[in-house]
Amino acid sequence: MHRVAILGLGAMGSRMARKLLDAGHQVAVYNRSPERARALEAEGATVAATPRQAAERSEMVISMVTDDDASRAIWLEESTGAIHGLGEGTIAIESSTLTLAWVRRLAEALGSRGTDFLDAPVAGSRPQAEAGQLVYLVGGAPSAFERAKPLLEVMGAAIHHVGPLGQGMVLKLAVNSLFSLQVAAMAELLGLVRKAGIDENRAVEVLGQMPVTSPAAKGAAALIAARDFAPMFPIDLVEKDLRYLLESARSVEAEVPATAAVRELYARAINEGYGDNNIAGIARLFL
Ligand SMILES: NC(=O)c1ccc[n+]([C@@H]2O[C@H](COP(=O)([O-])OP(=O)(O)OC[C@H]3O[C@@H](n4cnc5c(N)ncnc54)[C@H](OP(=O)(O)O)[C@@H]3O)[C@@H](O)[C@H]2O)c1
Questions:
Q1: CA–CA–CA angle 184, 170, 240 (5° rounding)
Q2: What percent of the chain has pLDDT over 90?
Q3: Residue 283: is its pLDDT beyond 90?
């Protein structure tokens, strides 16, 4: 059993912490808004007042927060950041979806203290986090990966070591781009078939049998047909991930015009007030 810290108890972090508690690990938790930690405290977690305090008690420290700015605050804040509490041999794990540039800067800061660091973002949403079925895409040294793997297996169904630091993050951003493109394509095409007078449910049924329709696109079609836009992967986060892919692509001089186009569509959905809808809510633009 390990002493683990989870920093960030949003939709994903809270579920990951619960899986670790259920598996018998000693879990210290930190959340910027402390009230979000209360339920986990009742389930056996220790609540820390700062990321530093949570890190001081832990062999592995996992961050799961919104974006680059939040990650900076969690790890590097003067005096309260987790970096100030990391003991010798502790592994720092960043599971939030962030830019390549930020992961590299964080790696420098942690590396200068001799801390092993992994970028370990996840594919999968709330149901997968709840079931311990996330897919981990990990970048970092093989030795740190091997040490962290048994712990990640508590939260994930597949743990992939992609390569050196930052590479897990790039592949994760690529996965999300692929997903976002397919959901947006399905949304606009279901708008088209409706306006052409085709029965929407019939179209979903037929499209679902075509080899070009991926399981993800099929799932999105079902949600769109049911008008079920309750948040799992909210559009605010979809747009953030697409923006981060564009930034990361610029930094390695890669061209990603399809991702750039679809980011504009999700940004439009946010402007129209749908930022807290699930990704399938992009269909609202075409209803
Ligand atoms: N939701 C998904 O389906 C999904 C799937 C895969 C990956 N991800 C990625 O996982 C990460 C977390 O997603 P989520 O859905 O759990 O998000 P969420 O429910 O919105 O939670 C965000 C967390 O970040 C914290 N936070 C935000 N800004 C902060 C700051 N400046 N300083 C400290 N803490 C801050 C929040 O604290 P407060 O409670 O105080 O606001 C909260 O704990 C994101 O990078 C997301 O892209 C999400």
A1: 45
A2: 99
A3: yes
